[in-house]
Amino acid sequence: MASELYNTIDALSREKGIDPQIVVTAVEDAIVVATRKYYKTQENLRAQLDKDTGKIRAFAVKTVVEAPEQVEDPLLQVTLDDARKVDPSVEVGGELQIPKVTEGILGRIAAQLAKQVIFQKVREAERDTVYNEYIGRVNEIVNATVKRIEGPDVIFDLGKAESRMPRKEQSRLESFAIGERVRVVIARVERASKGPAVVVSRAAPELVQHLFQTEVPEIYDGTVVIRAIAREAGERTKIAVMSKDKDVDAVGACVGMKGMRVQSIIRELRGEKIDIIEYHEDAVTFAEKALQPAKVSRVSVLEGTEKHLEVVVDDSQLSLAIGKKGQNVRLAAKLLGWKIDIKSEEEKRQEVEQQMSQLVTPASTPLADVPGLGEGLIEKLSAAGVTTVEALADMTPEQLEAIEGIGPKTVEKISLAVNNYFSSLEGGEVAVADGEATVEVPEGQETSIEGAEEAVTSLVDGEDVAGDETAEIAIQIEPEAATEEQTQEPAEEPASSEGKE
To answer: I need a labelling partner for 331 at 20 to 30 A (CA). Which of 14, 352, 435, 472 fits?
Structure first.
């Protein structure tokens, strides 16, 4: 039959939810501490509880060695001869238990010390039990009772342990009264010096998921699946659902008849807004749904970046898409797991125009590509900082004459060369430069080449070009088919030219 002491230990163990052997070990350790304090010894002491009688026996333990010279510490070792005087059956290497009298000699101070040791051991065992029980229940929904309020924190009673809900784990819409029963999520379990701290939450997305599983049978049986939840407690929650059965509307199942199901969840969350969105594998379509109630114009995936979307909305929809303090786009990005940039149509148009203006660069043609400009003239222009045909064409005659070595006749030569160059870009011309004639005839045009050569010769002979370095004359030939009269006209031009002269 168990002793009264052991029955008391067993009752204490059931009350604290710990193993009775842990309490027995705590009692034995307490007796060892009290005995060591009484005898003021450093011997290796042990204690043993007799379950039947309830008596606790304390003794010193020493290791048996064969010879006296092997004894290094007399408090911990004893020779074989001395050991057999106490216990004849002891052998070398065994342990000798030397009883210590404890009954009737341990006073009030020793008893108080033993009590403290027992309480400490029991509290440590209780902490380990609580930690081991709740560490595997993280993210689980439990019913808790409000026990007290400590500043911004709310203390809940979970039955076997107390839990704490800090301010950041609370919804701003909620307030609690002592004794109120609420459903909470076990957020985490922390080891602390004062014991394990079970932290619960009413702001976790898992609470919304559990409430939907409770209210919507289709979610409970797996017909409708919750794919993602994004929540800002007390403000708004976005939940993406998908149906495994094509005949079941996922969003309609969550809303319920006249919104009864979702309204029940909103009441539990103290009026928090809930957006139920149909899930899509396509990120572009999913983004359009997630940004509701805003209407999206277009969504594009940005290349070169990982999970980055650009959303363009109408100017009137920009503030609605962003939401209050960026809440709508922030929840949508959290729901998708993508980064989202929202721009209005006007902002996108300005961005495209800026990019196009950066891509369009002014053409730059070197002066050497212009026929009729000698190397000496190009060197003079380059020395003055004019290196392209475009820059040369923008200069006025006064600016050209300001360059050293360039006079009015050279300015005329430059003007004629530049005009011929730009005309040549359009095709179909006759150019005369440095006394040489170049005739370009469009395909399919019938013209008297001989007549054109005579016209060029008569023009050059009829004008005074002695003072010029070069005479350049361009004759544009019209693309229409030439008649016989038109073919004969160049032969008559020398006479008219001479008559004018």
So the answer is: 352
Question: At residue 47, does pLDDT exceed 80?
Answer: yes
* Report field, pTM of the whole predicted structure over 0.90: no
Residue whose token pair is 């004459």 = 401
Q: Between residues 417 and 331, which one has the greater pLDDT?
A: 331
pLDDT digits (tens, 9 = 90+) for 308-357: 899 999 989 999 999 988 999 999 999 999 999 999 988 888 888 888 87
- For the chain, the distance separating the N- and C-terminal CA atoms, rounded to the nearest angstrom, is 152
282: which 2 tokens? 């396509």
Is residue 149 within 8 Å of residue 165, measured between CB atoms?
no
**Hunting for tokens 């052991």 — which residue is that?**
6
Which is it for strands 197-201 and 339-344: parallel, antiparallel or unpaired?
unpaired
CA distance 471 to 418: 14
63/97 Cα distance (integer angstroms): 9
Query: Edge-to-edge strands of the sheet including 273-278?
Result: 224-232, 236-243, 273-278
Residue 445, number of CB atoms within 10 A of its CB:
13
